[in-house]
Records
---
Amino acid sequence: MRLYIKYMVSLRCKMMVEEELNKLGIHYAIVELGMVDILETITKEQHEQFKVNLLKSGLELLDDKKSILIEKIKNVITEMIYHSDELPKVNYSDYISEKLGYDYTYLANTFSEVSGITIQHFIINHKIEKVKELLLYDELNLTEISYKLHYSSVAHLSNQFKKVTGLSPSFYKNLKQKRMNNLENM
């Protein structure tokens, strides 16, 4: 039996889900981002208690097919941007379609209908969050970041960053340095 969980995006979430399953005595094969494979049929009471316990932690057990599909799309994108060293060399649309086994047009229309934004905007927003993270770590320069995240150029990355955040990447990076200096002077 497979269960789908909304907002499950980190290793900490996975550990929390595993803990809740263990508390309820539910045996599982695997816990992935957004998904759990249960080894046996669970009772209605276990299902409801698991649902309640997840809600207390900010997670949500999904029941309807569209919500499950949207969560799968988000998990593929999250995995692609945050948890893999290399972004796919193919188009994101081809990658997502191949990973989920659905036509991309169907995925895109369903995602937009339920989420209110396009898959492309969702990807852009998450790529910009990744850029922010990499800028704050200060291990890569902007050229290396644009290459790592498959931007066509540093200018393209900078324009997209400014469009989403209202700031240039260099101004954003300088804000971090100013905050650190202010903390040191306290």
---
Amino acid sequence: MMQSNNKFLNLVNHPFLFRLYLFIKLPAAFFSGIRIRECSNSKCITSVPYKWLTQNPFRSTYFASLAMAAELSTGALALNNTYKRNPEVSMLVTKMEASYFKKATGITFFTCNEGHQIENAVKEARNSGEAKVIIVKSIGKNKSGELIAEFFFTWSFKTKSKKNK
């Protein structure tokens, strides 16, 4: 297993520094109020509120806002395994599937528990020099624990060659 990336975990778990990171790198997530609630090597929990910037005409959270929070729950785990690594590893979402079960009318929490699978995929990509594809799941629930949505993200990881930098 790869060594924990404490620098990245310290960044995402620091409320001010991560909000600054979102403002610079993902302004749509920043203005939507998306937060990382908890992030470790194995699990990431994000949240998205129902508010003016995330609403749809049906008085619930817009599907794209839900998707953004779900993707961040998987993407933070991916970044934890690629952030400032040598050799560099590129990461890209190549597919997304979603199912919606209930209107999101309050805060929605997305949980991805597949950090170790992501870690193994990145390790395989680094060791082989070939692209490694993995499908990871993020589950969205409301404060009452009711299932709101389920997302599957297909991530591709590949070691960057010197000519691609």
---
Amino acid sequence: MNRKIGFISSIVICCSVAVFLICLIMALFAQNAFTENLSYGVCAVLSWGWVATACVYSCFAQKERRAAAKIGVAIGVIYATIIGIVYFTQLTTVLHKSVDEKIFQAFSFTSAGSWLFNLDLYGYGLLAISTFFIGLTLPTENKVDKSLKLLLMLHGVFFVCMFVPILPLPATNQGNGGTIALICWCLFFLPICILSILHFKKLRKNNEII
């Protein structure tokens, strides 16, 4: 059951990142409310999928690495909670503009430097820390796991994004810089998702042999 959940959750996060990447590429050419809201939805699903994946990774952690695994799961839960608040707000309060204009600007994700924009960056910084600790627990018995471990830990570098809101930012997004940065992140994180699928698929096969 553990391996099956890990396999399925890895597919979920892989599909979520892939759809998010497509939405971002489309946004480079034209702004579209549907793809924008779709990207919010799949990012929320990504956060739930990562928590499930991290939990499964923790189940197979060696005894001396279980503390790191628990830290990775705990931080992942905080990340998912924050991201859930951000994107649920975008798909409800912001989408229907059900608050005063001043409050709307604070809630709107499209406004760089807004409260929820900064909260989103904080959430993804926590995801980076979570992947780092999960990477610490991963054994390296084959090339797939070695590559996966390396990418999980290197992804930890993205924790710096939580400090970006401390820096002065323009009141609104201008240009495609932010979108291009997110595309680069997707291209980095997508191999982690694919390797996770291969990791749990191999575990399932080994389990059947045993």
---
Amino acid sequence: MSDTVLQELYQVVLSRKSHPQEGSYTCYLFEKGLDKILKKVGEECAETIIAAKNNKQEETVGEISDLIYHLMVLMAAQEIPLEAVLEELERRSHKIGNLKQMKTVDHET
């Protein structure tokens, strides 16, 4: 999987925010507002934890996917571009352990 899948999903979420469609779950979340979105993020986080603790890999993958989706809805609601998160992850990938030093990473190997 590439970050293209994440970008495509985020574009769908943004589209639902800008152009609501009747019957869309994403639109329902935006309509209900930040409290509902945050509640869903919390629920999906807890469900991810439980699935992982129970060593249910397939279920954990599904819950992680749900969590990522709901985080994207939160990002859209807060007008946080996906690129900002991807850039932060890229920046953090250059850290050495828990140190604040940056390292050079050879992403080709």
